[in-house]
Amino acid sequence: MKETPSGTPVGVDDPYDHAGLCDHLTDEGKCRYAFEHPEQDPAFARERREDDLRCPAVPDGDWESCPHYRCRNRDRACVRCGLGERRMAHSDERPLLEEHHLSYADEAGTLSHEITVYLCRWCHAKVHDSWARIDDDANPDPEAIAEKEGRRSRERSEAAFESAAERFDRDGE
């Protein structure tokens, strides 16, 4: 199983098994990175411009061949147990979901492709602290469900309609 530079497991053997379309890929198969950031890698941008900005990994999806491949999961649910995010507006509470990086520095010490998915805090800890895998068939931790339901209850109570008469009567005014 792949490991972080500090030696903790990341929960996968091959990060590319969990990789999707590149974040820089447009609907037309063009490379947005080469267009928007040519100063970052002039040689890459020049090659892409000569090829009408076509993505080097399209059509075969060989993402490893592109030096600027990046795939960040946008689904707001844990990829391991399915727990959905429940964020509280204007709150400093710790989020239920955390980004989990599947791709770290390679053998030469340079950062390889960025591949990230979302894991709930509980699954994230299990993956890093044990041999739990991202593709395990797992259910949400009972503590995670309780935290999510607590947030849902607070959200509903904040969204509930309360007339001014009820508020003033309750406050004794």
Can you describe this structure?
This protein is α+β, with helices and mostly antiparallel strands and about 170 residues long. It has a domain of about 100 residues. Helices cover about 30% and strands about 10% of the residues. It has 5 helices and 3 strands; from the N terminus they run ααβββααα. The chain has a 3-stranded mixed beta sheet with strand order 1-3-2. The longest helix is centred in the C-terminal third of the chain and has 18 residues. The termini are far apart.
Number of helices: 5
What overall geometry do the principal axes of the alpha carbons give? extended
**Adjacency order of strands in the biggest sheet:** 1-3-2
> What's the mean pLDDT score?
87
Q: Which stretches of 5+ consecutive residues score pLDDT under 50?
A: none
**Radius of gyration, whole Å:** 22 Å
Determine the structural class based on helices, strands and strand pairing.
Answer: alpha+beta
Q: Write down how many β-strands occur, each being a DSSP E stretch of 2 or more residues.
A: 3
- Largest sheet geometry: 3 strands, mixed
Quote the beta fraction: 5-15%
- Encode the helix/strand succession as letters: HHEEEHHH
State the end-to-end CA separation. 64 Å
